[in-house]
Specification:
The chain is mainly α and 85 residues long. The protein folds into two domains: 1-33, no CATH class; 36-84, no CATH class. 59% of the residues lie in helices and 0% in strands. It has five helices and no strands.
Length: 85
Amino acid sequence: MCVFQKTMQKRDRNPKIARWALQLEEFECEVIHSPNQQMRHIDALSRNAVCIVTHSQSEITRKIETAKEADELLYFLKTLVKKGL
């Protein structure tokens, strides 16, 4: 039985939520509703702003690009692909 049966039966369901529900169907789980009054502390934490670090991602990307440029085999293969061989 579909845990998210009501979600999937809605005519105007959000496609993002429908995909999420389908992905969760792969797992054996039980969804338990907790009323708002019991979830105040958790709700406050989930809405807390989080600092996102993007510098390290760009640094990793730069290192990968540098390594790709220094790789002789990769350069040779790219040349062959560009020539259509």
